[in-house]
């Protein structure tokens, strides 16, 4: 293959790679003037005080401290007395910038009376389009995994049902992981979500929910070991997206699913 020729397979592989990285929109809905963005970014965040100004004058020109997003999230979440009210409150939360780039708010799916609540990371492309968590390839694998121990999001019976949510309800750009400040803004909503759904056990699917609920990362070390999150027994598991990339890890995931099944029996 010459440097200026790319065959069909290579072109397709390159395209899939770009999609993996999140470049799934050749043209955005509205044009973006990136030169203007660069100028905006270069501006200082607050007006600088004149050099000779007194400390009092300097503080007078400093921008006023904005609201504390975490405190506001806590107040909004605490007021919610039902899952519907919580979804409404979280959807109305304006301090998380990821909201601006997302098509849809993704709150939950499944049966909220389920004994098992799964917490994932954040919506990907399909979830953002559909407004439901775990509906893409990883979600389909998740459904197959849990069906193998008799649990499904479609079940009307709490015993065999699943309730599914994510730490982050808006899709991050390029499917990047939510950062620490984004996670801390969402944590009050997640805590209240668990409180209102009141499952018997929680599954923490991957590193981001472990970071949010346990303050720890290192899923390959944490997986399969029962811990406690939001006052509930919690089982960290490897994310199905990881299992799609590392099929050999499915063996351990199967042993974690059996652990979960045994715990549900034990708590009956
Ligand atoms: N990965 C997640 O963690 N959550 C989703 O909803 C989809 C993919």
Which percent bin holds the helix content?
40-55%
Spans with pLDDT under 50 lasting ≥5 residues?
Answer: 17-29, 31-60
User: What is the N-to-C succession of helices and strands?
Assistant: HHHHHHEEHHEHEHHEEHH
Please indicate the percent range of residues in DSSP E strands (runs of 2 or more): 5-15%
Task: Walk me through what this model shows.
By secondary structure, the protein is α/β, with parallel strands linked by helices. The chain has one domain: Uracil-DNA Glycosylase, subunit E. Helices cover 46% and strands 10% of the residues. It has 13 helices and 6 strands. A 6-stranded mixed β-sheet has the order 1-3-2-4-6-5, with helices on both faces. Helix 4 runs antiparallel to helix 5. The longest helix has 18 residues. The chain is globular. The termini are far apart. About 16% of the residues have low confidence.
